[in-house]
Amino acid sequence: MDPTPTVIVAGGAGYIGSHMVRMLRENGFRPVAVDNLATGHRDAVRGDELRVGDIGDRAFMASVLRETSPACVMHFAASSLVGESVGNPGKYWRNNLVATLNLLDTMLEHGVRQFIFSSTAATYGNPVKVPIPEDHPTQPINPYGHSKLAVEYALRDYDQAHGLRSISLRYFNAAGAHPDGTLGERHEPETHLIPLVLQVASGRRASISRFGSQHATPDGSCLRDYIHVQDLCAAHLAALRKLQSGAPTTVYNLGTGAGASVNEVIDAARRVTGHPIPMRDDPPRAGDPPVLVADAARARAELGWAPQYQDLGTIIEHAWQWERRVRAAQAA
Ligand SMILES: O=c1ccn([C@@H]2O[C@H](COP(=O)(O)OP(=O)(O)O[C@H]3O[C@H](CO)[C@H](O)[C@H](O)[C@H]3O)[C@@H](O)[C@H]2O)c(=O)[nH]1
Asked: Whom does it interact with, and what assembly results (predicted)?
């Protein structure tokens, strides 16, 4: 085997992809980031290879695959805003399904038959059982979830027909930032709870909205399973090794198995930042299930993976380090 296998990181200039690029390099792989920079940031791929282009552009991807001969493609490039997907489903079907099919077909043409796919808890829809195991019914309630589940189906068919083996990782809530403070989340616009709360603490926003306080949860606010971005990447690394050892196509949940409520997130951020973080109550956000918590026992057992950052305070501390860096850069 090639002593330094190449791994294509589609979406490598984005939030999770940029952490993955760095982790791959630190673990003896040669990462090649591919990103159209629609939402990614060139400076998130410091010191690593970045090819700028669209994963759905077959001529472009053919040249990337020809020139790099990767062992595997990890696919983080997607549109991922649930609300936007409801208003503009075409964008989600095109960016998340059509572009991925083009990518898979180009991979087949170049003999690349290992694929790791960023899937989502949104494939389950409203859970009928919590924590949610992988064999829970998949009935997405928005186009984002539909588009991701459609790719999972396509992946099963591509394995049967073409021997392209894949692992789909259904993330719960990606959170946190690199512990050294040099990589993190930069979405424009930002819609995620933890970065928004921290933008209040750093003075970029006046208050945080709590979307619903009467949900059927212990404190009335929504419960989510926040998983550190480094733990997500570690699971990808384990999945890569599993595929390299011949594992068949499958799916795994990635979460800690612990739920944190919106109130708990805001309280933890108050403790970490020392800022009062004013909160206002707003109506529930359409399509937000009250509880999304993973049963990640399969990933633990079969990938030999366990999250290292279980503590919500640590996840928020890392995100806070990053937020202060972004704020300082803006002020400079
Ligand atoms: O200003 C805010 C923002 C969020 N929330 C609440 O905080 C929780 C977390 O919201 P996020 O927007 O941070 O995350 P989501 O659970 O909505 O989204 C996650 O799950 C989605 C699928 O369900 C997609 O996969 C998405 O990319 C991923 O971040 C939710 O209960 C939401 O209602 C607030 O109360 N106020």
From this structure: Homodimer.
